[in-house]
Structure formats: structure tokens, C-alpha cells
């Protein structure tokens, strides 16, 4: 599994396994979070959950999961592999030994670099996932240019025409090809700027709290953390990271759900200003409770599976 003392492949494989398990655990609440942030007609989290269940049954919560399951596993593999190997490179450069424990500054640098790197791979994954998750949302009449085709005597409210059978994308591959055809390669990276604002501080508040909690929960400084400690530390770190990242996540979700045919936002700043003017400051905290709840089991599963897989590979 190891190619050198400073670069190791087992981190990538363990990250892949951890990513797969976290997607299965977290996707239902991720769907709820996306609908709350970028959709319309939901009063609160419970109302959103009940609406999805009534209209789409249990399968509605797993809409768009096939693509994340295939891609987020690779994404998490790269994130965890990059983070761990970056730590070793920093330790080798600063202390002359890749196995030297990283200080808080080292961890911060490694976390921020990981967040920056993650956007290149994660932005298209997130965009496709969100476009698929948002397919059952109300289609605004003005976006479909229906105003010129509806007779003046109709009683249909033009701003809330609902077309349940309207499905823009047949699946993830069709979604990617459609985006490339209509928006070009840059279309896959719509919302990437907001994702940088979310992930650079987000990963810092992900890996550092995890390390701190693991150290606090260890019986002594030399022992490895217990699986229960890893699970708890990972869950707490995930909740902290996702709650603090919610404002940037709202902006990212709205920009990524904003397809070209019904383009609403010109850029990040316009999205922030428009959202604030129309919905108030509270809009930037929409889905925060879902993020806090969802972040715990997802990250707890992610870190526990990652650490146990790593221990298994290194015992071979």
C-alpha cells in the first residue's frame, strides 16, 4: 500500500471506503438540505421531509444518489489522501521526518490546501447532485416562457405553474452532457467560487476539531483513540464544520441549482444581495439544523470507517 515514507496510497483507499459509507448514511438529509436551500414551498425541515415523503415516497430522499455514490467516494478518497500526505510533506519539510506529529499551524495549512484542492473535483459532483435533487421542484412559468403562450382568460397563476412530469435530466450522465452542451465546461463549475468560500474554512473546521477531540478523548498521549472516540470526534467535527459553512453552502446551492435557461443570479455577490433583499438574513442559515443533524452521522461514519480501514491496511 505504501510507495514511500512521505507518500502513501492506503490513505486514498481508506478515504474511498469511508466516502461510500458516508454517502449512504447522509444522502437522505442532504436531499432535504438542498430542497430547503434552493427550493420553494417548504415551511421548515419537518414540512420538507413530510412533503418529499408524501409526493415521492422514500425513494425521493435517495434521488440523485447514484452519482454521489460513484463520485463522492473518489472525492473523499482524494480529500483524505491529499490531507494525510500533505501533513507528511509538511512534517518532512519542517522537521526532517514525515512521521513527526503536525502542530496546529501545520494542520491548518494542510486543511486549507485540502479545501482549495477539493473544489476542482467537488464542484461538478455537487452541481450534478443538486440539479438531480431539484428536478421535482415547481417550474416557474416565466422561465419556460409560458407567458406569451397562455391565453389572457386563463386562471392559471403564471408564477406557480407546476409540471410534475417535467424532467430535464434523465440521469447523471445526461445531466453532465446537457450542462456541457448548454453552458460549456464552465457550467460544471458554476458556484465554484462559493464552494471555495465554503470549503477552505470548512475543512479547517473539520480536521482540526476532529484532531482536538480525538486527543481529548484518548486515555493517554501514546495510545490510539478508541473506535467510540473516533466516532464521537468525527461526528462533532462534522456538525461544527457544516453549521459554520451553511451561509456559503446556501449561496453555492442556489447558484448550482440556477440552470442557464432560468438563470437568476449573475454571480456570488448578486446571489448574496438578491437573497438578502428578498428573504432576509435568515436565508443564509436555512438548512443549518439539517446540516448539524446530517453532519454528525455522515462524518462519524466517514472518520470511523476511514480510521478502521487504515488500521487494517497497515496491519497487513
Automatic annotation (TrEMBL):
<dbReference type="Pfam" id="PF00153">
    <property type="entry name" value="Mito_carr"/>
</dbReference>
<dbReference type="InterPro" id="IPR018108">
    <property type="entry name" value="MCP_transmembrane"/>
</dbReference>
<keyword id="KW-0677">Repeat</keyword>
<dbReference type="InterPro" id="IPR050567">
    <property type="entry name" value="Mitochondrial_Carrier"/>
</dbReference>
<dbReference type="GO" id="GO:0022857">
    <property type="term" value="F:transmembrane transporter activity"/>
</dbReference>
<keyword id="KW-0496">Mitochondrion</keyword>
<dbReference type="InterPro" id="IPR002067">
    <property type="entry name" value="MCP"/>
</dbReference>
<keyword id="KW-0999">Mitochondrion inner membrane</keyword>
<feature type="transmembrane region" description="Helical">
    <location>
        <begin position="104"/>
        <end position="125"/>
    </location>
</feature>
<keyword id="KW-0812">Transmembrane</keyword>
<comment type="similarity">
    <text>Belongs to the mitochondrial carrier (TC 2.A.29) family.</text>
</comment>
<feature type="repeat" description="Solcar">
    <location>
        <begin position="6"/>
        <end position="89"/>
    </location>
</feature>
<dbReference type="InterPro" id="IPR023395">
    <property type="entry name" value="MCP_dom_sf"/>
</dbReference>
<dbReference type="GO" id="GO:0005743">
    <property type="term" value="C:mitochondrial inner membrane"/>
</dbReference>
<feature type="transmembrane region" description="Helical">
    <location>
        <begin position="65"/>
        <end position="83"/>
    </location>
</feature>
<keyword id="KW-0472">Membrane</keyword>
<keyword id="KW-0813">Transport</keyword>
<feature type="repeat" description="Solcar">
    <location>
        <begin position="225"/>
        <end position="312"/>
    </location>
</feature>
<keyword id="KW-1133">Transmembrane helix</keyword>
<protein>
    <recommendedName>
        <fullName>Solute carrier family 25 member 48</fullName>
    </recommendedName>
</protein>
<feature type="repeat" description="Solcar">
    <location>
        <begin position="102"/>
        <end position="216"/>
    </location>
</feature>
Amino acid at each position: 500500500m505504501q510507495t514511500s515514507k512521505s507518500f502513501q496510497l492506503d490513505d486514498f483507499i481508506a478515504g474511498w471506503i469511508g466516502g461510500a459509507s458516508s454517502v449512504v448514511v447522509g444522502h437522505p438529509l442532504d436531499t432535504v438540505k438542498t430542497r430547503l436551500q434552493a427550493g420553494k414551498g417548504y415551511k421548515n425541515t419537518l414540512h420538507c421531509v413530510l412533503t418529499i415523503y408524501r409526493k415521492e415516497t422514500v425513494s425521493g430522499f435517495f434521488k440523485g444518489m447514484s452519482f454521489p455514490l460513484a463520485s463522492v467516494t473518489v472525492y473523499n478518497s482524494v480529500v483524505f489522501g491529499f490531507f494525510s500526505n500533505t501533513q507528511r510533506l509538511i512534517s518532512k519539510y519542517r522537521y526532517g521526518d514525515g512521521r513527526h506529529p503536525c502542530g496546529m499551524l501545520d494542520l491548518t495549512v494542510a486543511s486549507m490546501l485540502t479545501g482549495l484542492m477539493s473544489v476542482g473535483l467537488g464542484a461538478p459532483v455537487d452541481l450534478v447532485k443538486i440539479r438531480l435533487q431539484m428536478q421535482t421542484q415547481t417550474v416557474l412559468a416565466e422561465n419556460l416562457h409560458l407567458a406569451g403562450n397562455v391565453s389572457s382568460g386563463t386562471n392559471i397563476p403564471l408564477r406557480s405553474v407546476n409540471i410534475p412530469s417535467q424532467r430535464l435530466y434523465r440521469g447523471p450522465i445526461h445531466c453532465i452532457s446537457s450542462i456541457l452542451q448548454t453552458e460549456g465546461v464552465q457550467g460544471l463549475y458554476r458556484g465554484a467560487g462559493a464552494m471555495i468560500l465554503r470549503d477552505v474554512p470548512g475543512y479547517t473546521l473539520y480536521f482540526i476539531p476532529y484532531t482536538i477531540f480525538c486527543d481529548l478523548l484518548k486515555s493517554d498521549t501514546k495510545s490510539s483513540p478508541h473506535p467510540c472516540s473516533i466516532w464521537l470526534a468525527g461526528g462533532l467535527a462534522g456538525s461544527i464544520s457544516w453549521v459554520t459553512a451553511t451561509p456559503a453552502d446556501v449561496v453555492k446551492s442556489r447558484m448550482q441549482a440556477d440552470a442557464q435557461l432560468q438563470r437568476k443570479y449573475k454571480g456570488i455577490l448578486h446571489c448574496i444581495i438578491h437573497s438578502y433583499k428578498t428573504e432576509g438574513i435568515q436565508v443564509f442559515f436555512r438548512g443549518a439544523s439539517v446540516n448539524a443533524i446530517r453532519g454528525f452521522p455522515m462524518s462519524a461514519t466517514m472518520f470511523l470507517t476511514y480510521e478502521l480501514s487504515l488500521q487494517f491496511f497497515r496491519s497487513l
